[in-house]
Amino acid sequence: MKLIKLEHAYKIYKNGTTAVADLSVSIDKGEFVFVIGSTGSGKSTFIKMLYREEKPTKGNVIVGGINVARLRNSKVYKLRRKLGVVFQDFKLLPKLTVYENVAFALETLGLPANEIRPKVLKAIDAVGLKEKTRNLPSELSGGEQQRVAIARAIVNDPKLLICDEPTGNLDPETSKGIMAILNRINKELGTTIIMATHDKELVNKMKKRVLIIENGVLTSDTKKGSYKVHESIKNSN
Amino acid sequence: MRALRILTRSIRDSFKSVFRNISLSMASIACTTITLILVALSLFLSHNVREITTTLEHELTIVVYLDREVTDEQKIELENDLKTMENVESYTMKSKEEWKAEMQQENETLETTLDYLDENPLLDSVTVTVDDVRNLSETAEKLRAYDFVTSAEYGEGMVESIIGIFDAVSLSTLVIVIALVLVTAFLISNTIKLTIFSRRTEIEIMRLVGASNTAIKLPFVFEGFILGVLGSIIPIALSIYGYVFLYNETGGYIFTRIITLVEPFPFVLIVSVILLVIGSLVGMLGSWRAVRKYLKI
After folding, report:
1. I need a labelling partner for B28 at 20 to 30 A (CA). Which of A11, A219, B4, B53 fits?
2. How deeply is B76 buried, as exposed, middle or buried, from its count of CB atoms within 10 A (0-12, 13-18, 19+)?
């Protein structure tokens, strides 16, 4: 069953730059997909269109049954409630504890307190931070902070988890830990994961579906792919 | 239920946020306080000036002196005309005999001098108060038109200029009040913009996790309200205590008995309500405007 479907999607910025051109791709429920491409390839724009941080100029981008291209600004929240997003820079609130950072997502949505607590504890447990619920982000390592961000992204049981270079700021060992958590979320919860990355080693090791975007165009889509294809494309350019 | 929870959460968070971002909150409160004090001063000034003008207007009269040979019929004719004359509020007639008796009572020298004279040298008079002092001169002209009226005096020139000055003061204080309200709105809006700028990550996360625009705006609007209310506490306290103190110290008069101050109650209470409304409304609107910027893609 398709969770994401892009049909001839274009994103042309006001200054005339074409970031994404004629992109068509489908992603099933429960898939784990890497999106790779050089800086400025349109990879980030593609990811941003999925959670409607960017609006496609032309074509359709359907995520969980919602056509992002036709989604009004005031209705964006309906899409966002179906997905979780994780960033390279974690985006945690520095004055809130680990528990409060994760609970923030549910409180903002107006969930009752007795529902929030078990959900938050479950999400924190899933990322292995049970012992640090009362710590502030500044008291955590980079890897731990990213795990808090993942807990916040999955606390509302989203069908889709979008990760924009989540290991970009982390050392290889910590990155492995993060990947293990994402892999577990994908397998155990059945959450679809789309991850943009530059990390060659991770992509090669995980053997997942790989989408390669170059100059705004989808140049390769391989099951159990690797970074090698991307490099061969780059070299041929 | 969900809406109610979002509302209560917004109120709780707005209080928390005021204290978490205490330095920026203090900046907003301070700027509200200063401008509201100025607004309060202008309100006190403009209302008092308006009251003084009204008082002065009531004190101004036209004094009409009648001809020495005026007959009783003519006096009755004038009295009848005054009853129906436009702009005439009231009139008091005083005969030359009444004048003489009054003057003799006041001063001994005058008493002997007036007794010494065979004939009463004084004139019959009518004191006329008018509805609108701006038409004083026209009414005086009408009265002068009578053959048996010697003069109709009201302090020409001076009256017009005094009224002109008070009108100008009254108008300019009103302009100052409006300008200050606008300045307050602008300053609060800008300070809140700074607060919100420092919390753009929070807004970004709220958007990311799927909070609706209204749910995002609410805590900020409440925060603006709280800042506005807190900012108006000192101006309100100063208005109440300051004005009552001034009124009690001066006994309600400044320099002369003509310049009277407006009674403190309920005047200060009305000013306080105005300050509270300006502070809270401007705080809320300022926040609403400032947060809107971060909700566009």
Report:
1. B4
2. exposed
Rounded Cα distance, A164 and A196, in Å:
5
A10-61 confidence digits (pLDDT tens) = 999 999 899 999 999 999 999 999 999 888 889 999 999 999 999 999 999 9
Range of the structural domain that residue B118 is part of? 61-153
Residues B177 and B41 in one domain: yes
Distance between CA atoms of residues A136 and A100, nearest Å: 9
Is there a single domain that holds both residue B95 and residue B238? no
Query: Most B CBs within 10 Å: which of A77, A85, A106, A164, as the mutation test of the B interface?
Result: A77
Q: Do A85 and B208 touch (CB under 8 A)?
A: yes
- Residue B96 and residue B174 in one domain: no
Residue A139's pLDDT band (cuts 50, 70, 90): very high
| Residues B143, B7 share a domain | no
Question: Which is nearest to A203 in space by CA: A222, A189, A181, A218?
Answer: A222
Same structural domain, B128 and B173: no
Asked if pLDDT for residue B258 goes beyond 80, the answer is no
Least confident of A31-35, A40-44, B63-67, B197-201: B197-201
The H-or-E segment that residue B93 falls in is: strand B88-94
B15 and B133: one domain? Answer: no
CA distance B219 to B215: 8
Residue B71 burial class via C-beta count within 10 angstroms: exposed 0-12, middle 13-18, buried 19 and up:
exposed
Contact B3 A54 (CB under 8 A): no
For residues B290 and B260, state if they share a domain.
yes
Residues in a beta bridge with A35: A196, A211
CATH number of the domain encompassing residue B107: 3.30.70.3040
From the list B219, B198, B228, the residue with the least C-alpha distance to B28 is B228
| Burial classification of residue B99, based on how many CB atoms lie within 10 Å of its CB (0-12 exposed, 13-18 middle, 19 or more buried) | middle
CB-nearest partner of A93 from B201, B295, B296 = B201
On whether both B124 and B165 belong to a single domain, the answer is no
Whether residues B209 and A111 touch (CB distance < 8 A) is answered with no
pLDDT at B175: 86
Give CA–CA dist A97/A145, Å, rounded.
11
User: A115 — contact with chain B (CB < 8 Å)?
Assistant: no
Q: Does A81 touch chain B (CB under 8 A)?
A: yes
Q: What is the DSSP letter of A171?
A: -
